[in-house]
Design a protein that fits this description.
alpha+beta, two-stranded antiparallel ribbon, single chain, zinc ion binding, zinc-finger, Treble-clef zinc-finger protein, about 180 residues, EF-G-binding_C, about 25% strand, metal-binding
Length: about 180
C-alpha cells in the first residue's frame, strides 16, 4: 500500500473525527490483539478534531510505546511506534522530521515502527526523529512552544500542514512497504 505524496493534499482538517473502533482497526503493523490492547489517548472524546492533522500519543503506562494515526491516501492508517532509550548526547538541538520544529535534543525522540508483512515479522523497522510528545500540529499552530528558538516560518498554515503531512506520508510509505526478500 503506497501513498504518493501528492495524495496527502487536502483541506484542513486532515483527520475527520475518529472513534475508538476506527482507531484500533487502522493499525497496520501490529496484530489485532495488540491493537485491541493498546492504550488510547486520554481525552479522545473531547478532542477538537478541527485542529488534528494526525493523532499521535505515547502510552502513559509504557512511555517507550507510542502510536500514530494519520491520513494516508484515501484512508486512515495507524502504526505502533517504539521510542529509543534516551542517551546523553553532545547535540544541543534536534529537528523534527515531520513538522520541522527545532527542539532541545531531549525533546525529539527516535521512533521506530515495525514494517508491515514479512519484513516486519523478520524484525525490520523504520525509524525517524519526531517531536517527543508527537504534538507537531500544536507546534505548527503556535499552541505549544519549543524550548529552543525557531526561525519564523512565514508560509501559510495550510502550506505548513501540507508539508508536515507529506513528511508523515513518506514515513508511512516506508512502514507499509514489505521489502522482505
Amino acid at each position: 500500500m503506497t501513498c504518493p505524496v501528492t495524495a496527502v493534499r487536502r483541506i484542513i482538517p486532515a483527520v475527520q473525527p475518529l472513534d475508538e473502533n476506527r482507531i484500533r482497526k487502522s493499525f497496520v503493523n501490529c496484530s489485532k490483539g495488540e491493537a485491541q490492547r493498546l492504550a488510547l489517548p486520554a481525552g479522545l472524546a473531547g478532542l477538537d478534531w478541527s485542529e488534528v492533522d494526525f493523532l499521535g500519543w505515547r502510552d502513559p503506562r509504557a512511555a517507550q510505546n507510542a502510536y500514530l494515526v494519520a491520513p494516508y491516501g484515501d484512508e486512515v492508517v495507524g502504526v505502533a511506534l517504539r521510542a529509543a532509550a534516551k542517551h546523553r548526547s553532545s547535540v544541543k538541538s534536534s529537528l523534527c522530521a515531520f513538522c520541522g520544529t527545532i527542539h532541545a535534543a531531549t525533546d525529539v525522540s527516535l521512533f521506530a515502527a515495525r514494517r508491515v508483512g514479512a519484513a516486519g515479522k523478520q524484525g525490520n523497522t523504520v525509524g525517524t526523529y519526531v517531536c517527543a510528545d508527537l504534538a507537531c500540529g500544536l507546534y505548527l499552530r503556535g499552541k505549544r512552544r519549543p524550548a529552543v528558538h525557531n526561525p519564523v516560518d512565514r508560509a501559510p498554515l495550510a502550506e505548513r500542514v501540507e508539508r508536515m503531512l507529506a513528511n508523515v506520508a513518506r514515513f508511512l510509505d516506508e512502514v507499509t512497504t514489505d521489502n522482505a526478500g
